């Protein structure tokens, strides 16, 4: 019996590759992949802002560290909500993405005494909801070419 040799890879016949059609998803109330990506980006901004706030407060006056943290949180919520995709309700999508960013960072601040203030947590959640909803509403208007009035 003789052993059959396999042809080299360059000599093997190729199967006809059918072109794959892109999968289209029907838009839901929230475009989940875009919301998760936005929450991840917002988390990164919150993390960097939270780490740099004590440094800003140390190098300048202590009030500047608090203002820095507030401005960073608002910026993080804008970053989280600006990726909208194709949701049916863009305001809900932005609010979910911004709250998701805050919920990702919350376990990192809860071990500290200042992080357990329920009033601050509630106000930060309210800020995330309002900033996220407004940001995604503006992005939806820009994306679809509708006027703001």
Low-confidence stretches: none
Overall strand count: 0
Specify the biggest β-sheet: none
Rg calculated over all Cα atoms? 24 Å
Query: How many separate structural domains?
Result: 1
Figure out the total of helices. Answer: 4
Strand content: under 5%
N-to-C CA distance: 84 Å
| Alpha-beta content class | mainly alpha
Q: What is the succession of H and E elements?
A: HHHH
What general form does the structure show? extended
Q: How would you sum up this structure, described in words?
A:
- This protein is an all-alpha fold and 149 residues long.
- The chain has one domain.
- Helix content is 64%, strand content 0%.
- The protein is built from four helices and no strands.
- The radius of gyration is 24 Å and the shape is extended.
- The mean pLDDT is 86.
Quick recap:
The chain is an all-alpha fold. The chain has helices at residues 32-59, 62-81, 90-109, 118-144.
List the helices and strands and how they pair.
Blueprint: H1 32-59, H2 62-81, H3 90-109, H4 118-144
Helix pairs in contact: 1-2, 1-3, 2-3, 2-4, 3-4
